[in-house]
Amino acid sequence: MKSSKEKMIAGEVYQAMGKELFEERQYAKEQLYTYNNLEPSKIKQRNQLLKKLFGASTNLFFIEPPFRCDYGYNIFLGDNFYANFNLTILDCAPVKIGDNVMIGPNVSLFTAGHPIHHEPRTAGWEYAKPITIEDNVWIGGNTVVNPGVTIGKNTVIGAGSVVTKDIPENVVAVGNPCRVIRNITENDKLYYYKDERMPEAAD
C-alpha cells in the first residue's frame, strides 16, 4: 500500500494530513525561517541551507529572501538560476527548472490542486502535477504557474500572467489565462524593449 508521500509524488489523489508529510513541511519551514532571517551578507550560508533542502542544484543560484516552499526535496534547479523577492513554490510534485532561468518578484509555482466538489475537498483530498521550466526562460513578476504546466526553452512570460497550460519554446506569452502573443526572433537581439536598441547594436 502506497504512503501519502508516494501518492503525492506519483500525482495520485492523497491526503496531506499524515505525520510524515506534516513533519517534512515543518522541517522545510524551520530551514526557511533561518534562511529568510539571516543577514543579507550571509549569502553562502543561505545557499547551503537551500542546497540541503532542494532535490538538486548547482553552486550557481541566487534566491532573494523571503522564499517559501512546501518540502524542498521536489525542487530541482539548473545552473545560473535567479529569483527575485517572494518566490513561492508549492512543490508537492517535482518542479524542474533548467539553466539560465530568471524569475521576477512575487512569482508562484503551484503544483498542488484540490477537487472541484466541496465534499472531497473538505475531507482533505488533494493532488499534485509537476511543473517544468526549461532553459533560458524569463518569468515576469506576479506570475502564477499552475499544476502540470511546462514552459518551453527561451520563452518570456509577461508580468501578471496566469499560466494554465503548456507554453511552447521561443515565444512571448502573457495574460490571464496566459497566451502566446508572438515568436521571439533574431531581431530581438537588436532591441531590448520596443524601439530601444541594445548598446552593441546602436554603433
Automatic annotation (TrEMBL):
<dbReference type="InterPro" id="IPR001451">
    <property type="entry name" value="Hexapep"/>
</dbReference>
<dbReference type="Pfam" id="PF12464">
    <property type="entry name" value="Mac"/>
</dbReference>
<dbReference type="Pfam" id="PF00132">
    <property type="entry name" value="Hexapep"/>
</dbReference>
<keyword id="KW-0677">Repeat</keyword>
<keyword id="KW-0808">Transferase</keyword>
<dbReference type="InterPro" id="IPR011004">
    <property type="entry name" value="Trimer_LpxA-like_sf"/>
</dbReference>
<dbReference type="InterPro" id="IPR024688">
    <property type="entry name" value="Mac_dom"/>
</dbReference>
<dbReference type="InterPro" id="IPR018357">
    <property type="entry name" value="Hexapep_transf_CS"/>
</dbReference>
<keyword id="KW-0012">Acyltransferase</keyword>
<dbReference type="InterPro" id="IPR039369">
    <property type="entry name" value="LacA-like"/>
</dbReference>
<dbReference type="Pfam" id="PF14602">
    <property type="entry name" value="Hexapep_2"/>
</dbReference>
<protein>
    <recommendedName>
        <fullName>Acetyltransferase</fullName>
        <ecNumber>2.3.1.-</ecNumber>
    </recommendedName>
</protein>
<feature type="domain" description="Maltose/galactoside acetyltransferase">
    <location>
        <begin position="5"/>
        <end position="59"/>
    </location>
</feature>
<comment type="similarity">
    <text>Belongs to the transferase hexapeptide repeat family.</text>
</comment>
